Each structure stands twice: as structure tokens, then as C-alpha cells.
Amino acid sequence: MASAHDFTFTTIDNKPLDLKDFAGRPVLLVNVASFCGFTPQYTELQKLHETYGPRGLVVLGVPCNDFGAQEPKTEPEIAQFCETGYGVTFPLTSKQKVIGGDAHAFYRWIVEQAGEGAAPRWNFHKYLIGKDGQLLGGWPSRVTPTAPEMVQAIEAAL
Asked: Which of 4, 30, 36, 154 is an active site residue?
């Protein structure tokens, strides 16, 4: 695969989600979980969506249960949790594997592009994809969505 635009997810409400539909817009893709110490980052992700969405940024949450079994809920439960608990209005995918041989193809591509060290190490790992579908950067869980380095990268991508 040549770019992130070559991948497809399924939305949390079971509809196709082709990343090629976001061509020309940067995408901040984040693996998320409901019962993680980093779960409050949903608030900052929503803030990025509200602030930069009108300028083209797509925030995309990818629920996963790979780390500490911190996302045991079903897709409808995850959607309700995000909406009622954090006011999330940005798109979410169906629950995905993000590490290992059975990881979603997008995450295997990340490792091919940037090396094994680029794979998520925990929930709320962030990847910024450029307008052209190329990987611009990755940030671990401890880097908050509105940290200066994240905001700077997002503004540069816009």
C-alpha cells in the first residue's frame, strides 16, 4: 500500500469508511479505549475536532482492546460512552486490533513505513496523516492531543 488513503475501516455503526474519502485533508488517527488512564484525552480530541475540523482536520478514533483489556464494550456501548461522557462528535471506527499479526492493515502499514518502534505501545497513540495520505508523525499516549508539538504538527499539515 502506498498511502493511508489505500485503507478502509468500518465505522462504529457498521458503515464503510474509506480513508481515501479524506484525501486533501489531514487525519489524526488515535487508538482509543474507555477504561484507560488516558481516556480523558477524548476531551482534547473533541477540542481539536471543533477547532481544526472546520479547517479540514479529521479526528478519527479507533477503539481497541489490545492494551490491558481496557475496551471491553460493544460498539454501541462505546459510541454511547463517548457521546454522553465526552461529547464526542468526531468519527469512530469499529473496534480493531492495532498490534500484532492480526492488526488492522493500516497499523501494519505504519510499522512498514516507520519501523517496529512506531507501533502503538498503549491506548491513545496518535498518528498524523498528511493531505496526501503519507505518515507525518506519531506521538505516544503521554503526549496529549493539544500539546504544543501536536498543535504545531496539525497546523503545519493544514
From this structure: 36
